[in-house]
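Progress note, sequence design subtask.
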């Protein structure tokens, strides 16, 4: 009898059961003893009727203990589920049979057990590692009972052109296999070491409990030996049947994945998605092979189970209905228009066919102030058509993911629009994420193709990025071999032209995926944001209507996202001589040169770029000033822009209307405001003439086609309400509803559920309020809200109060300590800069505290830093989370160091 004395396990769950084996491995009539963790009897004793059964199957070398959190969650009296977690034969505390049981045997064994248990549905299978394959094999054999499948890191197919994971290859080596898996406990210990964070000692001991001794580990060794390396392996036919059978499995599916898995990497997840394209997928960044230990998977599993049977929120038709049904009770909106869709490449095509066809469409600048490359509208159109034909011949088709690692300019414009016309999904993650962030983004998106410059291709080769590689330029044969490059854009363009490529005539589905754009990563790991063709077109239309940008406009794109929108707007666009992944590299001279090259009327630039424009304005010539005087509109997005900074920029661009649209990768733009409107709002806030004005950055009114509301913050700093409001002075999480809101987060199902938990709205994670004039004021990010005793403090307004001091360049507010009792800490970047980080001098601290008290907040501590840590992409967003960790260390007596 098994004594269930393991952390997190209710002893009542542990039971043993005997089942007659029908496996060909056993003699007829053989009875096998199984151990399982099962909360069914407990639910029955409590008088609870479960909604169904979770049939949980572990892999190698774990056991049913892996599923203890699901058992606990399934015992919830409000939403009970029976959870049956089995120990496979020769594993856990089940019988050691003395036989070698292959994949087909194990599927059959599981069927023997479920027959004995009388499981007849509804059953949702849950599997991990090789337990995932076995659970799927059972599901395919019992379709009448199965209503869903849940998978954690597993695989059903090994590509013939890719080697098996190194760890498994080592475990299978004849010199290692017997000792590593059976004679010693090395295989178990290595597996347990894959947990992130490391497993506590008592949890490790529980996992080791059934495997004390070589005889108890025979099944561990046999499991490893049963991995099919190729078609000659005895278990290959069974594995292949399961892999192909999944394409016919139409029940709901959920995949919860740990990307830091040296065994089942993202390539296996991609394969599973191709076989179960309807599956909901969530990748837990930082989690690994033992994802059930690394993260709480019980909550998302039961959230997903509760959602089955509800309408799919991902369906754009459903979202349209919800958007109408869930608006503020005082307002209504028309549904998203279903007619008149114009794809992103419509206007470039029109320009090419019209009288402007011979005019410049897109250009690049060289450091010497001259145009280095340019294409007319007709040349651009022909280049797109030719490249699309060449890409299609190379295998790029509808749904193919293509990672574009090309700087903004001619090449990126042609490649982007060619891919979109093919129906491919472009993946855009810029180098501003840093090597680690960029690598994480690319691997997570698992592109089929990667188009890149030499630097990107080198990184792809060194870091193992997925995708068939295409270079921008022709490379020498030796270089191509080293980088694994198949061909080049120029070769594909020539091939397409050589075939006399005509315009593609396939029908485009407006609701089909078009692009995965990655967030800046300034508030955590960068997230992939999936847009459909209709949503990209809606973004273009919103920008055009809000800012009056029409065909024939001439823009300087110093901010990467807008470099791609220029042609879609029918506007002439030029990329200045700068590193667009580092916005602060834009100089006044480079901007003036670019403006002069096309007689620019519009400029897009980030706040960091604006600061450098002012810092380098002395280098402007008379011609440069004259070129900037022709600019009629400046847009600066990516972070709040101080009014005093805009006022100085106005002197450089005297005729321009200066606007700072507020938005995010998930919906760009959301609101808009001009310099004059900012000055008016600030004056009204100072005079107190408009209720709600002040305490934050005024970002103006919603843009064309967008609606904005807030859901009020509770005393604990959370936005847990369900009623969107627009009342003046109510601080809450900012919500957006618009046709250009993203479709979903890519392979982040749980994040998407959180962001769309109020149907019809996107939860931005930003905090703000409206004033009585209907203007939105942004007060910071939800994770940065400080919950001090008896008060909820949002950071931005307080930071602004401190930054009015002549000795402070930038200020950041952070919370230190437990939620609800946090100390409010100010971290300041001084003028002149401090020589080292640490507690601020008494005089400076006193002035900062006084400024904060005027804003109604008591500061517990003031720290000084030489420079505030900012995000990589915008060079403007202060990393308050990082500062909070640093301040906690300093105030606890640790060495200050750098934040």
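Output:
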């Amino acid at each position: 009898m098994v004594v269930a004395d393991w952390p997190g396990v209710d002893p009542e769950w542990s039971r043993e059961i005997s089942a007659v084996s029908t496996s060909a491995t056993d003699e007829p009539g053989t009875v096998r003893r199984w151990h399982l963790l099962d909360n069914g009897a407990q639910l029955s004793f409590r008088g609870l009727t479960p909604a169904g059964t979770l049939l949980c199957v572990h892999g190698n070398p774990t056991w049913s203990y892996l599923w203890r959190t699901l058992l606990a969650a399934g015992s919830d009296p409000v939403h009970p589920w029976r959870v049956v977690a089995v120990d496979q034969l020769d594993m856990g505390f089940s019988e050691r049979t003395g036989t070698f049981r292959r994949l087909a045997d194990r599927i059959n064994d599981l069927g023997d057990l479920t027959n004995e248990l009388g499981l007849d549905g509804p059953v949702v299978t849950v599997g991990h590692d090789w337990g995932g394959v076995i659970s799927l094999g059972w599901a395919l054999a019992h379709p009448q009972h199965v209503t869903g499948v849940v998978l954690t890191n597993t695989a059903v197919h090994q590509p013939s052109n890719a080697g098996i994971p190194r760890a498994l290859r080592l475990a299978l080596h004849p010199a290692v296999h017997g000792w590593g898996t059976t004679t010693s406990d090395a295989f178990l210990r290595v597996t347990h070491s894959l947990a992130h964070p490391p497993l506590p000692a008592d949890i490790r001991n529980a996992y080791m409990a059934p495997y004390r001794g070589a005889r108890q580990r025979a099944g561990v060794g046999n499991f490893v030996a049963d991995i099919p390396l190729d078609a000659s392996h005895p278990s290959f036919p069974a594995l292949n049947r399961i892999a192909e059978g999944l394409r016919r499995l139409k029940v709901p599916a959920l995949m919860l994945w740990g990307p830091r898995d040296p065994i089942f990497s993202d390539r296996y997840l991609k394969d599973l998605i191709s076989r179960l394209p309807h599956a909901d997928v969530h990748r837990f960044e930082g989690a690994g092979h033992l994802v059930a230990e690394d993260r709480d998977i019980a909550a998302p599993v039961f959230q997903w189970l509760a959602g089955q049977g509800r309408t799919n929120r991902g369906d754009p038709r459903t979202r349209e209905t919800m958007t109408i049904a869930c608006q503020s009770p005082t307002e209504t909106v028309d549904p998203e228009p279903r007619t008149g869709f114009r794809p992103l490449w419509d206007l470039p095509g029109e320009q090419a066919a019209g009288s402007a066809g011979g005019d410049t469409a897109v250009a690049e600048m060289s450091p010497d102030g001259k145009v280095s490359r340019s294409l007319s509208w007709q040349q651009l159109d022909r280049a797109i058509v030719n490249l699309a034909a060449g890409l299609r011949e190379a295998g790029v088709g509808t749904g193919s993911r293509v990672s574009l690692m090309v700087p903004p300019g001619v090449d990126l414009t042609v490649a982007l629009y060619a891919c979109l016309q093919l129906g491919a999904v472009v993946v855009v993650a810029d180098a501003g994420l840093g090597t680690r962030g960029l690598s994480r983004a690319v691997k997570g998106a698992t592109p089929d193709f990667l188009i890149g410059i030499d630097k990107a291709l080198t990184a792809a080769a060194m870091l193992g990025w997925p995708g068939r590689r295409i270079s921008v330029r022709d490379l020498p044969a030796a270089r191509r071999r080293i980088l694994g490059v198949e061909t080049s854009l120029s070769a594909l363009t020539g091939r397409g032209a050589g075939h006399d490529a005509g315009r593609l005539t396939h029908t485009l589905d407006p609701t089909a995926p078009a692009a995965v754009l990655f967030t800046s990563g300034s508030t955590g790991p960068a997230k992939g944001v999936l847009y459909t063709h209709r949503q990209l077109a809606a973004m273009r239309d919103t920008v055009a209507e809000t800012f009056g940008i029409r065909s024939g406009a001439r823009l300087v794109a110093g901010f990467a996202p807008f470099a791609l929108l220029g042609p879609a707007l029918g506007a002439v666009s030029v990329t200045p001589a700068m590193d667009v992944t580092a916005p602060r590299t834009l100089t006044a001279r480079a901007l003036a040169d670019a403006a002069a090259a096309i007689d620019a009327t519009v400029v897009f630039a980030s706040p960091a770029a604006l600061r450098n424009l002012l810092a380098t304005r002395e280098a402007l010539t008379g011609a440069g000033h004259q070129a900037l005087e022709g600019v009629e509109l400046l847009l600066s997005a990516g972070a709040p822009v101080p009014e005093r900074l805009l006022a100085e920029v106005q002197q450089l661009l005297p005729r321009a209307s200066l606007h700072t649209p507020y938005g995010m990768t998930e919906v760009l733009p959301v609101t808009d405001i001009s310099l004059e409107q900012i000055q008016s709002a600030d004056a009204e806030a100072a005079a107190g003439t408009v209720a709600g004005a002040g305490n934050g950055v005024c970002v103006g009114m919603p843009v064309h086609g967008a609606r904005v509301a807030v859901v009020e913050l509770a005393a604990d700093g959370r936005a847990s309400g369900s009623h969107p409001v627009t009342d003046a002075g109510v601080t809450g999480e900012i919500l957006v509803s618009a046709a250009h809101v993203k479709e979903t987060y890519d392979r982040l199902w749980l994040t998407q559920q959180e962001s769309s938990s109020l149907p019809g709205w996107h939860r931005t994670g930003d905090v703000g309020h409206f004033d009585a004039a209907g203007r939105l004021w942004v007060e910071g990010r939800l994770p940065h809200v400080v919950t001090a005793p008896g008060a909820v403090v949002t950071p931005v307004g307080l930071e602004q109060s401190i930054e009015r001091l002549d000795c402070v360049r930038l200020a950041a507010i952070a919370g230190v300590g437990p939620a609800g009792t946090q100390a409010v800490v100010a971290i300041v970047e001084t003028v002149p800069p401090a020589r080292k980080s640490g507690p601020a001098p008494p005089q400076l601290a006193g002035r900062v505290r006084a400024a904060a008290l005027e804003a109604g907040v008591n500061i517990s501590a003031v720290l000084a830093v030489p420079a505030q840590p900012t995000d990589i992409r915008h060079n403007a967003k202060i990393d308050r989370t990082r500062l909070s960790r640093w301040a906690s260390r300093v105030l606890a007596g640790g060495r200050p160091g750098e934040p």
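Residues 311-338 have pLDDT under 50 and may be disordered. Work on this subtask will continue into the next period as scheduled.
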